[in-house]
Amino acid sequence: MKALITGINGFAGSHLCDLLLAQGYEVHGLIQPDTGTENIIHCLDGLKLEETDILDENKLHSFIASDKPDFLFHLAAASSVKLSLEHPKEAFDANVSGTVNILEAVRNGSPKTRALIVSSSEVYGASSSMTKADENAALLPLNPYSASKASADILARTYASSFGLNIIVARPGNHLGPRQSPVFFVPTVAKQVALIMKERQAPVIELGNIDVKRDFLDVRDVADAYLALAKSGKTGAYNISSGKNYLLRDIVQMFIAMSGKKIAIRRSSEKLRRTDALEANIDNSKISRETGWKPEVPIEKTLRDTLDYWLLKS
User: Fold this and answer.
1) Which one of 111, 112, 234, 305 is most buried, counting C-beta atoms within 10 A?
2) What's the pLDDT tens digit per position in 122-156?
């Protein structure tokens, strides 16, 4: 079986690549030109890579028409809420126009491909603050990132119904683990703690609002969920979550405890966002019921592995 991953050299893409190779898939990957391969350096010999920007419509269509993968996992995206607030147009270009190009390439060049389009549980926005959001909850995004993901989410499901394509939409929660960019909250904390442990930073970490709750799960569990959906999911949308909410302050304290250091927390106004929901509640019963998937990696292991990763990199 042939699997194509867009954004294979990204955080989740690299872990999905590891899983597919371990299970014997022929793995092909699209990477944006001039981006690094550090996250997949350990498995480059087992891959077929193509440098193609998903906004390059003609080149993308040509590649997918010739490659004709059995499974396509569309992970290439602008994935940072923070960066989407600074550059909203770029987020919409990547997440909406890029997804349309993928969908058109499948429709016109490889209609038998089973495509997984990665959305985000962020699309629920205010809905997940009010009640536990299942897949039928209203999409009420709170920032440019989640608005762009909601647009792509709707487009993917529309293409499935309008053109009879085999398309599944995944809505993962906040996933964590080694290789994640420090532009995100948990790796930012892990990196700062690692620098403090190596005495390369004063024992103070600067953070925004840490009195909010988020559903966190391990990136390796997310990769397992993507494959489970590709193999046995039905056309439509699926939440991927741990089903547990964690206070950001508690996550920070767990890292501090692992460090064995006395570390102060300083609130930084520069890191605050005006549109943060205080809580996000995501229902994962549909994917568990229909595929048998469930999260396996304890949060303590996820955080420990993340800290170890930044200790090696720092």
Assistant:
1) 305
2) 999 988 877 789 999 999 999 999 999 999 999 99
Q: Rounded to two decimals, what is the model's pTM? A: 0.95
Angstrom CA distances, 301 to 34, 190, 241, stand at 33, 13, 17
List, as one string, the DSSP characters of 143-157.
SHHHHHHHHHHHHHH
Closest CA to 282 of 235, 224, 242: 242
- C-alpha 294/C-alpha 38 separation (Å) is 29
56 Cβ neighbours under 8 A, 6+ residues apart: none
Q: For the beta carbon of residue 240, count every other beta carbon within 10 angstroms.
A: 28
Q: Set out the domains of the chain in order of their start, with CATH numbers.
A: 2-176+218-244+283-291 (3.40.50.720), 185-213+245-280+298-313 (3.90.25.10)
Dihedral, 229, 220, 12, 16 alpha carbons, nearest 10? -60
How far is residue 178's CA from residue 198's CA, in Å, rounded to a whole number? 18
- Alpha-carbon gap, residue 187 to 180, rounded angstroms: 6
Among the listed residues 241, 240, 191, the one whose alpha carbon sits nearest the alpha carbon of residue 216: 241
